Amino acid sequence: MQVAKEELEKIDSIDVILGNEEKKDIVKYCDELLKEKANQREEIKDISEIKNFAEFGEITYTEKTRAVIKVQDGCDRFCSYCIIPFARGRVRSRNPENVVAEIERNCKKRN
């Protein structure tokens, strides 16, 4: 979405277009769309301007044995073949206290 906005805007069946920073608020944007009875809702911040890690989501599990917790997003390398810095923005790390709190919450749920 961050790098192909114009292509997505051409698709009539898409009702909501959100950037990476806005996806945590998808329910809010969908509610607003329904209330306004608009054809399309678009909210996209310039990802290169985002300085803080967006806190949302929870630990995910793969194969029921491994926990995956996101602690960093983005990249500062700008390799010639890679789109990540343009799609995800510059490197942003999570607050360590939030990571520990999420792990503790998840451990309580699983026990």
Task: Characterise this structure.
- This protein is α+β, with helices and mostly antiparallel strands and 111 residues long.
- It folds into two domains: 1-45, no CATH class; 52-111, no CATH class.
- 32% of the residues lie in helices and 14% in strands.
- It contains four helices and six strands, in the order H-E-H-E-E-E-E-H-E-H.
- The chain has helices at residues 5-9, 26-36, 84-88, 96-110; strands spanning 16-18, 41-43, 60-62, 66-68, 72-73, 92-93.
- The strands form three sheets. It has a two-stranded parallel sheet with strand order 1-2.
- A hairpin with a 3-residue loop joins strand 3 and strand 4 (66-68).
Concise synopsis of the structure shown:
The chain is 32% helix and 14% strand. It is an alpha+beta fold and 111 residues long. The strands form 3 sheets. A two-stranded parallel ribbon has the order 1-2. The protein has a two-stranded antiparallel ribbon with strand order 3-4. Strands 5-6 form a two-stranded antiparallel ribbon.
Mind sketching the topology for me?
Blueprint: H1 5-9, E1 16-18, H2 26-36, E2 41-43, E3 60-62, E4 66-68, E5 72-73, H3 84-88, E6 92-93, H4 96-110
Parallel strand pairs: 1-2
Antiparallel strand pairs: 3-4, 5-6
Characteristic terms for this protein:
111 residues, alpha+beta, two-stranded parallel sheet, two-stranded antiparallel sheet, 4 helices, globular
